[in-house]
Amino acid sequence: MAYIDVNLLPWRQQQRKRSNYRFVLFCIVSFSASIALIAAIDGVAKRLVEAESESVERLKFQLENLPVINESIALDLQRASKAQSELIKAWHSRQQQVSAISSVDVAESDGLAMTHLQIGGNQLTLKGEVESLSKLQGFVSGIEADPNWQNSRINKFQKAASKSAEFIIKSDYSDSEGAR
């Protein structure tokens, strides 16, 4: 008698084949997924390294240019300091001008009329009309009596067609009492 090998349960064999197929498929998918994950991590790592190297290069550039930046900041500070000192000088000058104007008795006396008063720096310029040279000389001697005014001089005395004459007086101012 011959013995025939008959598989009465073919579904088990098919199930084994399917299990083997699934296992191989799972291994292939897992391997592919791991390769993709490693590639993604590698790409991210490369980008991080590139970003870090760019940052290092930027810092190196800034460190190389630091003396230039410091010089620029120093120049800006010098300019600001110079501007501040100029403002302080202008303020003191303005105080001197106010002091100078208050020290001149600009009340119009008989026969003397002022038309213009100008202070530039430490110099006072008065313009006006006067009836006679003697009245103008009296006014100038009054200015000279003030210790703050020096070198007062009549720059122009011109007799006009009318009774009065035009004059220009220039005088140097120095605040003998200091800035007020």
How would you describe this protein?
This protein has three helices and four strands. The protein is an alpha+beta fold and 180 residues long. Strand 1 (112-120) and strand 2 (123-130) form a beta hairpin. It starts with 9 loop residues before the first helix and ends in a 7-residue tail after the last strand.
Reading the helices and strands in chain order gives: HHEEHEE
Q: Give the CA-CA distance, first to last residue.
A: 141 Å
Q: Which stretches are poorly predicted, pLDDT < 50 over at least 5 residues?
A: none
Total strand segments:
4
Tally of individual helices: 3
Strand coverage percent: 15-25%
Question: Helical percent range?
Answer: 55-70%
Mean pLDDT score, rounded?
78
Rg over C-alpha atoms, rounded to the nearest angstrom: 50 Å
**Major sheet, described briefly?**
4 strands, antiparallel
Task: Give the oligomer, counting copies of the same chain as homo and different chains as hetero.
Answer: single chain
Query: Can you tell me the overall shape?
Result: rod-shaped
- Please identify the structural class as seen in this structure: alpha+beta
In spatial order, strands of the major sheet run 1-2-4-3
